[in-house]
Design a protein that fits this description.
Blueprint (H helix, E strand, L loop, with lengths): L27 E2 L11 E5 L5 E5 L8 E2 L16 E5 L2 H5 L7 E5 L6 E5 L10 E6 L8 E4 L2 E4 L48 E4 L9 E6 L3 E7 L7 E9 L2 E9 L2 E7 L2 E4 L14 H6 L7 E10 L4 E7 L4 E13 L4 E4 L1 E7 L6 E7 L2 E2 L6 E10 L4 E7 L2 E3 L5 E10 L2
Parallel strand pairs: 1-4, 5-6
Antiparallel strand pairs: 2-3, 6-7, 7-8, 9-10, 11-12, 12-13, 13-14, 14-15, 15-16, 16-17, 18-28, 19-26, 20-25, 20-28, 21-24, 21-27, 22-23, 22-26
Length: about 425
């Protein structure tokens, strides 16, 4: 056997080890081979007892490790892995793969790689989550407010590849945005540093001059106003003025004219304000001057279809001590079957100077049974603040099946 060295491998009993294409020799350490020669063939016998040459690191031969006790990559068989992709666990378990196999799960962000270690693929415990696909990439940075901020997502984007945020852009938001801050004046949810106007709200579906609003703020005043399409700013609707952090004036404007101002302990109407309905707030100027030189009516009462005497002790409670003018009017509205007595009327009050209860007769009773019979009267009284002004009727009488009915009307005016 010149030209190569033959090695004989023995088992534990000292007998030669049989080798064959299906029963090969153990992997040899080439470092253990004699340095004087490099073998290319190993000589031995197969399972049938026949002598045969087995080439080293060649087909139908034996494999020898390298100096690092590793098998050369060229001697390893190719790895055959099934690779699948699934959007969720159900899809992964339905993959037609056999172990070893790989599945990329896209329901994770970033995606995760699952490894099938054993069959069947339908059994979840046979799958191992190996973590993020592409994990270990760079931690990107962006520029926010001119300051670099590190990201947290694993990515292969270079950290210096992320663009800086441009503070001059004007984004258009089409969905709801919620800003949540830590709370308190020191850490607001949103802080806007801007010249007037600070904010413009524009309703895109509005018609002409029906969609724009401005939020304004300067050193001592903030206002919310409506503007037209051309940017007219004359119609401020509400504003607040401050001094040293304290609100001093609330101002309400309609049509470019101040209508109401709340400041300190005073509520004032605009100079052109005139109350126009019974529920309008009035002003001291309006009360003082009266309307068409008449005094203001502060109280009154009216009753119809009365068929008995009336006791009405509280028509008005005097807000201030002073003179009040009381006007009363009564009319017979239905005649009795036989006869009737038209009643009297007296005004009752507490006299301002003495505190004595008074009853001043204004209308006297009379025998009358004709529809339209009426009497009226006016008297001036001095009533005490906080006491009531009222009236009573007396001497009513009616004879017959049908009763006599009457109506009464009263006004009370404050004279000062």
């Amino acid at each position: 056997m010149s030209g190569y060295v033959v090695y004989c491998f023995l088992d534990a009993n000292g007998l030669p080890v049989p080798v064959s294409p299906t029963n090969k020799l153990p992997i040899l350490d080439s470092g253990a081979l004699p340095t004087s020669s490099t073998p290319s063939i190993i000589y031995g016998t197969d399972t049938g007892g026949e002598q045969k040459d087995y080439p080293i690191n060649a087909a139908d031969g034996v494999v020898v490790t390298d100096a690092n006790n590793k098998i050369s990559a060229s001697q390893l068989p190719p790895l055959d892995h099934d690779v699948g992709k699934a959007a969720n666990q159900t899809e992964m378990l339905a993959l037609a793969v056999t172990a070893p196999a790989v599945c990329i799960r896209t329901d994770f962000n970033p995606p995760h790689v699952f490894y099938l270690t054993a069959d069947p693929a339908t059994l979840l415990t046979n799958w191992t989550d190996t973590g993020e696909f592409g994990a270990g990439g760079a931690n990107p940075s962006v520029t926010v407010g001119l300051t670099a901020k590190n990201g947290s997502a694993a990515t292969f984007l270079r950290s210096d590849g992320a663009p800086a945020l441009d503070q001059t852009i004007a984004p258009t938001w089409t969905a709801k945005h919620t800003f949540t801050g830590a709370g308190g004046s020191a850490t607001p949810s949103v802080s806007i540093a801007s010249a007037i106007p600070v904010l413009e709200i524009n309703y895109t579906g509005g018609g002409a001059d029906a969609k724009k609003w401005n939020w304004l703020a300067d050193t001592n005043r903030i206002a919310f106003r409506a503007i037209n399409d051309a940017g007219n700013t004359a119609s401020e609707a509400w504003g607040v003025t401050r001094a040293a952090g304290v609100v001093t004036v609330h101002e309400f404007t309609t049509g470019g004219t101040v209508r109401l101002t709340i400041g300190g302990n005073d509520l004032a109407a605009g100079a052109a304000y005139i109350p126009s309905n019974p529920k309008s707030l009035t002003t001291k100027e309006y009360v003082d001057s009266g309307v068409d030189s008449r005094t203001a009516i502060v109280g009154g009462d009216g009753k119809t279809a009365q068929s008995a005497d009336i006791n009405m002790p509280n028509v008005y409670t005097a807000l201030a001590s002073g003179l009040y003018r009381v006007s009363a009017y009564m009319v017979l509205t239905r005649a009795a079957t036989t006869s009737a007595v038209f009643p009297s009327l007296s005004v009752e009050y507490t006299e301002a100077s003495t505190g004595i209860g008074m009853a001043d007769l204004m209308i006297t009773s009379t025998s009358a049974n004709t529809v339209g019979t009426h009497q009226g009267g006016t008297t001036v009284i001095a009533a005490q603040a906080g006491t009531t002004i009222g009236y009573v009727t007396g001497n009513y009488a009616s004879v017959g099946a049908t009763t006599m009915q009457y109506a009464v009307h009263m006004h009370i005016e404050f004279l000062g």
